[in-house]
């Protein structure tokens, strides 16, 4: 209290002291009293616990000055203990753990200083070589290459992390080298994009990885087979665990029904995530953004293209065409209705489909032009 009202601390009443304590707590945002339970402390000299507080990580009585305990900080130590010699010191907290590289995340770092000899340098070199296992070192290099390709292609971090997780999960089931490894990695990125609701065509994935489209198709087939294998292995493990639980758990506690519930839940998750298909909704906005239409027509063009695709899908006009082909034809029809000067060749080049396919699909839509463009 003396630091607030110097010279008058000995003349304050108990009510004044309580008021000053309250004001001090309000003015001091760094007080850590809330993090410490003070209900178990009692000052025998003052015969009260009203003046027990925490100051600079120490539990004291502010009235008589008795020290009860020094609190040890249990949190991470982020400070740097730099000496007067200005030598660099390492941080006290390491990098966060990577669940995809569990063994490498537990490693330590050895520092070298100027006065260390060749023996210490050799120890550091050997330690660095053995810090990361071969498989995790290989995965780390693959992830770094995938990161560069994804960033250059404008793919988000969330999609990238999901692709890494899929590859780490499936690559443990088989040995892939060369083009087969690139194809499996491309399939993981393709599946990750599809799960995030922003799918891309196999052609685009082949362009990102600079491999033939045929290899991407093979990679997608291999991805489906490995995912089925992983799902079956997981189901067998869960069934075995549940059989063990059934033998040790009474039926009334859910032991008999547990295997069915777990298998059905995994099957429902598989159906909702892995078997989702792409629709025209996934291609409308990317195609419109690449078309470079006038800015004031962009919103109207997206809405009209979506309307044409929805009605054409409901009426079953082009059931044999893929979603990109239907979207490109609907975009061409919308440009014609809005008098936007874009030729079929330009739209086909933007959507990366053949002019013949676009012309055939557009010809079917033209027959129902009035029904597709009318406003309700």
From TrEMBL:
One of its GO terms (molecular function) is TBP-class protein binding. GO terms for biological process: transcription preinitiation complex assembly. Gene3D superfamilies: 1.10.472.170, Cyclin-like (1.10.472.10). Residues 155-225, 279-365 form the Transcription factor TFIIB cyclin-like domain. GO terms for cellular component: nucleus; transcription preinitiation complex. SUPFAM superfamilies: Cyclin-like, Zinc beta-ribbon. The keyword Transcription applies. Keywords: Transcription, Transcription regulation. The keyword Transcription applies. Pfam families: TFIIB (PF00382). CDD domains: CYCLIN_SF. This is Transcription factor TFIIB cyclin-like domain-containing protein. The lineage of its organism: unclassified sequences, metagenomes, organismal metagenomes.
